Amino acid sequence: MQELIKEYKQSIKNLRTAKVIPVECSSMISDANFAIEIMETGKVPGSTWRAGRIRKDEREISVDPAQMAKYIANTITTDSAPEAVLDLLDILMTNLTERERYAFDLVRGRGYSFAQAGTIMGCNKGSVQNFVSRAEKKIQVVVRKQHIYKGVV
After folding, report:
1. Measured on CA atoms in the order 35, 37, 38, 43, is the torsion positive or negative?
2. Helix (H, G, I), strand (E, B) or coil at 123
């Protein structure tokens, strides 16, 4: 290993004293220094890997977006939606299954990510995506029917 380190150091000297300097010379020198440091110390230089040694549940803290909104500056608090909008939402939600309604409420209503909603519901992220997708399709069908019905009258 010592001979290899000597060869690398000699290569660095040759690169620095070369009369014709290639364009990639600086990167070649830094790569050679990097390799020498690994060979001498047995460790990757400059990396401490502190974040990788902490468990995931200690690094991340789940927070409800609605609760977090209280602490964000310049947030506008809104009152409850008008009764007509709430009635329309009730009509739209009656066509959904319980799981679709819950997934749709978590993702679209409360602002959770699909993965967070999956954790809350006890299923996979992909399942939540399917629930929300099916819910949106059913809601679109009801909205189209309402629009067509109002257009005919």
Report:
1. negative
2. coil
Torsion sign across C-alpha atoms 97, 99, 102, 107: negative
Domains and CATH numbers, the chain: 2-49 (no CATH), 80-152 (1.10.10.10)
Q: Which among 144, 145, 117 has a CA at the least distance from the CA of 131?
A: 117
What's the CA gap between 25 and 104, in Å, rounded? 57
| Integer Cα distance of 54 and 48 in angstroms | 12
pTM value > 0.70:
no
**Cβ within 8 Å of residue 100, ≥6 positions away:** 131, 132, 134, 135, 138
Mean pLDDT in consecutive groups of 10 residues from the start of the chain, 153 residues:
85 77 67 82 64 59 68 58 77 87 89 92 94 91 70 48
CA angle 35/39/41 to nearest 5° reads 115
The residue among 66, 87, 88, 85 whose CA lies nearest residue 77 is: 66
And the tokens for 11?
A: 């290569």
Give helix 83-93 / helix 125-152 axis angle, nearest 10°: 120
The CA-CA-CA angle for residues 35, 40, 41, to 5°, reads 100
